[in-house]
Every structure is written in C-alpha cells, then in structure tokens.
Design goal:
The complex is a heterodimer of chains A (112) and B (114). Chain A is built from no helices and eleven strands. Chain A is an all-beta fold and 112 residues long. In chain B, strand 4 and strand 5 form a beta hairpin. The chains are: A mainly beta (112), B mainly beta (114).
Chain lengths: 112, 114
C-alpha cells in the first residue's frame, strides 16, 4: 500500500448538503490529487496540489473545492452536493514530476 | 472531449489466451503512457509504462506496444489468467508536466474465463 488513507470510505448524503472527503498520506509526497471515477469516463482529475496551500483546478473542478494546510492532508469539499456528484472519489499522490502516481482505495459517495 | 480513447469497453478471454486492449490519443505533447490495473473495491495500481523513445516494453506477461506515428498504444497480456480479471486503464501525460497529471482512457473490464 502506498500509505494513503481516505475517509470516509462510504457516504450517503442528501442533495444540497456539504460533504468533505479527506485524504491523508504518510509518504511526504509533494503532489496530491483528487480524481473521480465514473463508468465509461475512466478517472478524471478534479483538483490537484503541488504543495501546502498550493492547489489548482483539473478537468472537472466545477462544484468542488480543495484545501491543503499540511503536507499530509488534502481535503475535497462539495459545497452543496448534487446527484451528478455521485461517484467514486480517489485520492492519489506522487513524489515529483514524472514519478509514479499512487492511488488510495477510494471513497464511494452517493447523493440522494 | 476525451483525449485518450480506449477500446474495447469489455473483453472476455479464455485462460491461456491473449488479451489486447487498445488506446489512441490526440495530444502530440503526450510523452508518458502508463497502464493501470484496478481490482473491484480497490484503487488503480500502476502495471507498466512506456515512453515514446521505444516501440515496445515487456514486463513478464504484460507488453506495451507503441506506435508514435499512429498515436496509438496497446496492452497485450499473454497467457491470460483468471487472476488478471480486472479493469485496465490506459493513461497519458505530456512532457514537462509539472504536476504529473494523467489523462485516462475510459477503461476496459477484462474477464478471463477458467
């Protein structure tokens, strides 16, 4: 295992409620990512971080925000969850540019 | 716009057969092409990767073939085993990619029948 812990692993929430997913790494890697996985779309990048308090948008960032106050933690927030955000969310890390990306075990989110 | 197109979406192969998954890309700036393997309930894990300076890379039963002019690459699994049953994703990232951000194909669900 790559030393990545995602929490919660499963969550059911109602439309319009805020949701925060947490990613914790023990590898001291610089880069952290949030991807979502949906059938037929593979994995799509939501946001990524290249250092503490340094974040940027990915391909599907609308409706999501992130924060990274410590090297080891990267939070993904859905300010007002919608049914289209029902998905599996994966956190990933890598040490430096060109290095392998390691994925966490995923967080299953259902918005009803 | 999907920059990496993967086919087929699903594949059934008999034990001992060859599994072939194909990917095509559009962005000529891509220069790193990994394949990830994902088992149910788990996160994707790097299987094998290639850069465009070689046309083929082999690791055990897994081989990547790369055709730069056609902008295509493929994964071949020789002597496929039931334990290879998983979802496979191709991916690509451009050179000078400061964040090592990958663009993924849509995935192929492989089932190897005993």
């Amino acid at each position: 295992d790559a030393g990545i812990t995602q929490s919660p692993r499963h969550k059911v929430t109602e439309t319009g409620t805020p949701v925060t997913l947490r990613c914790h790494q023990t590898e001291n890697h610089r880069y952290m990512y949030w991807y979502r996985q949906d059938p037929g779309h593979g994995l799509r990048l939501i946001h990524y971080s290249y250092g503490v308090k340094d974040t940027d948008k990915g391909e599907v960032s609308d409706g999501y925000s992130v924060s990274r106050s410590k090297t080891e933690d990267f939070l993904l927030t859905l300010e007002s969850a919608t049914s289209s955000q029902t998905s599996v969310y994966f956190c990933a890390i890598s040490g430096y540019s060109g290095n392998t990306i390691y994925f966490g075990e995923g967080s299953w989110l259902t918005v009803v | 716009q999907q920059q990496v197109k993967q086919s087929p979406q699903s594949l059934i192969v008999q034990k001992g057969g060859i599994s072939i998954i194909n990917c095509a890309y559009e962005n000529t700036a891509f220069d790193y092409f990994p394949w990830y393997q994902q088992f149910p309930g788990k996160g994707p894990a790097l299987l094998i990767a290639i850069r465009p300076d070689v046309s083929e890379k082999k690791e055990g039963r897994f081989t990547i073939s790369f055709n730069k002019s056609a902008k295509q690459f493929s994964l071949h699994i020789m002597d496929s085993q039931p334990g290879d049953s998983a979802t496979y994703f191709c991916a690509a990232s451009p050179e000078n990619n400061a964040g090592n951000m990958l663009t993924f194909g849509g995935g192929t669900r492989l089932m190897v029948k005993p």
